[in-house]
Amino acid sequence: MAPCKKVLMLCGDYMEDYEAAVPFYSLAALGVAVDCAAPGKAPGDACLTAVHDFLGHELYTELPGHRFAVTADFAAAAADLSCYDALVVPGGRFVEQLSVDPLAVSLVAEFAAEMRRPVVVTCHSQLLLAAAGAMRGVRCTAFFSMRHVVELAGGRWVEPEPFGLCITDGHVLSAIGWPAHGEIIRELLRAMGARVDGGRGQAVLFLCADYVDDYEANVPFRALAGVGCRVEAACPTKRKGESCVTAIYDAAPAATGAVSDEKRGHNFAVTADWDDVDVDQYDCVVVPGGRAPELLVTHEKAVALVRKFAGKGKVVASIDQGHLLLATAGLLNDKNCASGVPMSVIANLAGAASVQPDGAVADGKLVTAASWPDLAMFIAHIIDLLGISVSF
């Protein structure tokens, strides 16, 4: 079925990694088409993203993120904004360049001031709204350093407390940044006229450890929160409030044919104490990939936990190297699954009935995906098995 809604995302080099990836994959999972356009770049080109997180210094640290693909022509998108139901502008340093780009500024002005359709601004991208003259009188939040920019542009500043807060004032949705993505997705769906059925009361547990894959943990975590699920993360070696460091595994350049390198990603917060985890309080368990599963399989309680989820007929979802935990728990036997190169031999050794090299597969209550580019399909399967539907 063709998407019935369409969103434009303005992109550029050094946009914040999560603030591009979460709306892109979350909306795609819900059947919303997302066009990613960047001035000076053509479809198929890549934008270099940036990881912004606090790593012990007074200001956030910027680290290299993923290569994020441009999917639409910027000039063509700007020429026909009427086909878009919402505009998303991630944060990051790229908005400084967009704020002095006449076509980008006029695009935002037309969308916000004339069409008055939903506009999402996060972290620092409120600068573009200010440059477009569309901030006056708008209640708005942002990263703390943006307060005076908001006020100078005639906006009404709102403290971003808690960090998960999304402020909706008419057609403008604003937030401090990626910690608010659950609320951002929820408010954006509402603003586009979506109806979400079945999400309230559903609970999902994420199993994580250090060097969990950056996208594979955070994107489904925020997406499921966005459709109303209670989402929690637990690690057998950490307590509630501590963080797991994530890892970025980007696609290796085609010319090298090499295994992708590993870069440090964002921190991923543990929200539940391991000893307090009760399978009966959850409807689904998600095991992201990265190197974290190598630690999880050394903890018999983690292996037993996913086995118990399956034994109680609950949804078990794994992506990429997360399959190692499922294989150890005996959950891949006679199952159809999707697995990339790292886990394909292990999936076969674990007795999988078939191993699809890409995409995502649902076999009964088991959902597997090959890698993070398959996140939209992975999230869609989980939402479907949880009995959640989104309609416009």
UniProtKB/TrEMBL annotation:
Pfam families: DJ-1_PfpI. Residues 5-190, 204-384 form the DJ-1/PfpI domain. Gene3D superfamilies: 3.40.50.880. InterPro entries: C56_PfpI-like (IPR006286), Class_I_gatase-like (IPR029062), DJ-1/PfpI (IPR002818). Belongs to the peptidase C56 family. PANTHER family: DJ-1 PROTEIN, DJ-1 PROTEIN HOMOLOG E. This is DJ-1/PfpI domain-containing protein. It comes from Oryza meyeriana var. granulata.
